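Annex B. Sample input.
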Amino acid sequence: MTYSISRADDMIPLVLDTSVLINLHASTHGGRILSSLPNDILVPEIVASELEHETSKNNGEHQFIHDLVATRKVRIVALDEREYEVFANLVSESPSLDDGEAATIATAACRSCLPIIDERKGRQRAKEHLPEKQPGWSLDLFRHPKVVAELGVALSIEALYFALRYGRMRIQEEHCDHVVRLIGVQCALECNCLPGYKLRRQQWQELSSSLNTLRKKIEE
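Annex B, continued. Sample output.
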């Protein structure tokens, strides 16, 4: 399976959106994932500020971003005048984006970085401002070869599953079957953020039931 930043030698700086940080935190291995990547990691101040609310403080996301900064795994950056002009356009013109998405795209566009963003509208607007680059997904980080090598197969799959279940990480339709094969159908049934979940659920339930029946026969 090929991902947007799957080449281990691709050193382009990455700019993370808020939902990406949430996914990394939910994975419980976010710090190790980012440390494994060869890329510089930027987080716009506006993105970091979106994790300042009470819910993020209670669930640990707020502390997570502060720990990433303290250990120099990410660098917080402020928008300059040119970036702010792009930001203002993105939040005001239809289809408008939220502040975090807009700041991520503006930073990436003006600094020749790669935005990592999962939301459909944000990805579409990113392509308008960076036509020569395909925006990355959170999934790209989790399945980067250096991350899998650092965490090992079992922990890298665990991190992926936690990001899907607890972070509600969005992935592209064409990667869904591959991801389900990685985490297993029983875990997939717990991840209702997966593309086409309602339509695929019955298929997964039937497969899970068949596997359980087979397992019982083997154990007898």
